[in-house]
Amino acid sequence: MAQVPQTFLDALAVRTWCGLALGALGRAREEIDAINVYPVADGDTGTNLYLTLESAATAVEAVFAGYETGAGKPSLADAVHAMAHGALIGARGNSGTILAQLLRGMAQVLAEGGEAAHIDGAGLRLALRRAADSAWQAVAHPVEGTVLTVASAAAEAAEEAEGDCGTVARAAYEGALTALAATPGQLPVLGRAGVVDAGGRGLVAVLGALVEAFTGEAVREAPAAPESLTAAGESGQAPDAVSDGHARVESMCDGDLCAEGSENGGPAYEVIYLLEAGDTAVARLRERLDALGDSLVVVGGDGLWNVHVHVDDAGAAVEAGVEAGRPYRIRITHFGLGDVHTGGERPPRERAQRAVVAVVPGEGLAGLYTEAGATTVLARPGEPPASGELVQAVRRAHAREVVLLPNDAELRHTAAAAAEQARAEGIRVALIPTRSAVQGIAALAVHAPDRRFDEDVVQMTAAAGATRYAELVVAERQSWTTAGICQAGDVLGLIDGDVAVIGPDVTATARTVLDRMLQAGGELVTLVVGDGAPETVAEQLEARVRESYLAVDTVVYRGGRQGTLLLIGVE
Predict the structure, then answer these.
(1) For residue 129, what pLDDT band results from cuts at 50, 70 and 90?
(2) CA separation for the pair 14, 64 (Å, rounded)
(3) Which residue, 165, 393, 449, 569, is the most exposed by fewest CB within 10 angstroms?
(4) Contact status, residue 110 vs residue 76, Cβ threshold 8 Å
(5) Edge-to-edge order in the sheet of strand 498-503
(6) DSSP assignment, residue 217?
(7) What's CA 93's distance to the chain center, in Å?
(8) Surface-to-core class of residue 350, CB atoms within 10 Å of its CB (0-12 exposed, 13-18 middle, 19+ buried)
(9) In Å, how far are 25, 96, 256, 502, 561 from 173, measured between CA atoms?
(10) What are the b/e assignments for 390-412, b being 16+ CB within 10 Å?
(11) 30: helix, coil or strand?
């Protein structure tokens, strides 16, 4: 929490704001999920907002951590750029995508001062206006009574305020709160359900955290329903909602900004991906996706975009992205017959007894793990998943017992935090501290759901622990390593996390690494080949094993774009 009130916005205030906003969304997540009715009650707006903000906060923390080992401190521009980029790459659903664009709009103004240490109330007013305007522009068919309306009201109220950042932030919060209470009168579906807009409720929580970052004082909580509707419910005129307090289903979408007219049904798929492309290509992409479906939101800039759309032809939506540039982190969700967009309630799905959730570094391994029955979380190079993303995967696995495989030593604490949160929700979770995807493969190979949970975890842990692992990467700069000094462009062979071999050639370095690993014995060699590795490396390593190591088998997988040239496991 902010300990001392301050009158300006600097890098530290951004960090404080992100932390407070994450806490506020964490507390309000379930409530926001429950009031998510426009245009469909699929109950994930609060979760999407939380995951998006968590990604933003993680990026800001990484900037501060980078300065802890050296001199100086991050500038305001450093902090807001990290915040916006983190939100962009972590944005989930309509609500999260819009929040990412709001933060990006603010960052564009806040970073205009270059190395300026801080901005005052006037700068914050401009930032809030840019945020609202950019969010409206990002939505193909904006609708009043949504988070867009709340954002505009916050900007308008801020423009009327005179004073420091705390004064401006409080005015924006109060304006947003008033606009939120009016949303049921702007969207009939909200009025019938007796709730306010879910995305707008989340934005109010974020703005309340901004006030607290400046003043050190917590704001009053925003209600899930306006007082007039709450009173009507108490007098016996209950809104049209189901008995558990969740509003009835109206149509298909995740809840904030889809086009009007979808209340009687909608497309079958939600498609989301990050896209590397130029402005001109993205303009053409918008036109094509708008013709394919609805709920289109495209945010970002400077070559990196987050694309969200609902379509009947998911393949066509992805192909459109391929034509525009390079799409990745592709997520396709099938709403399905009898699902939320049909207007009927979804029958509760029976929980499985046990499931495995695994973090994987590339699309190839994601396919392999999925075929083996695991629920996967894709970790892109330089983009490790946040704890909230792991918790979401555990929930998605829908099991009473879950084995969690982080497959990365750096994710140990993140995975532990996710496991604790899942346990608090009544899920039995065992965390196996796998440090590489090849250890995860070994653990998954002995997984037996029909065994007692403790026995299964012991067997999987033993299999992972008996697997030595190595990886080949390219050095980005000159540096000291445990194997000596490397130069930029050298191939590094890491065994069990430490640099063991430095070489100029991928195949030769890989052969040396493999020989060192097999000196201690082994029965099975696992090779996971990344996109950047030579095409013949697997073939040559297989030949090496056949010729020099009797009774040792080799299995090869294609890892895709996984951040490393080659992963090696020896069991």
Answers:
(1) very high
(2) 11
(3) 449
(4) yes
(5) 498-503, 491-495, 468-474, 566-570, 524-530, 553-560
(6) -
(7) 10
(8) exposed
(9) 15, 19, 19, 56, 43
(10) bbbbbbebebebbbbbbbbeebe
(11) helix
Per-residue pLDDT of 280-304, as tens digits, reads 999 999 999 999 888 899 999 889 9
Q: Which of 95, 236, 251, 96 is nearest to 188 (CA)?
A: 251
Residue written as token pair 């807009």: 197
- Give the pLDDT confidence of 137-148 residue by residue, as tens digits: 998 888 898 899
pTM, 2 dp: 0.62
Tell me how far apart the alpha carbons of residues 337 and 346 are, in angstroms, rounded to a whole number: 9
Beta bridge partners of 567: 471, 528
Q: What is the dihedral angle through the alpha carbons of 342, 348, 352, 358, rounded to the nearest 10 degrees?
A: 50
Q: If you compute the radius of gyration of the chain from its CA atoms, what whole number of angstroms results?
A: 25
Judge whether 438 and 555 are in contact, CB under 8 Å.
no
Helices (H) and strands (E) in the chain, counts: 19, 18
Query: Of the candidates 378, 262, 254, which has an alpha carbon nearest to the alpha carbon of residue 308?
Result: 254
Which 8-state DSSP code applies to residue 241? B
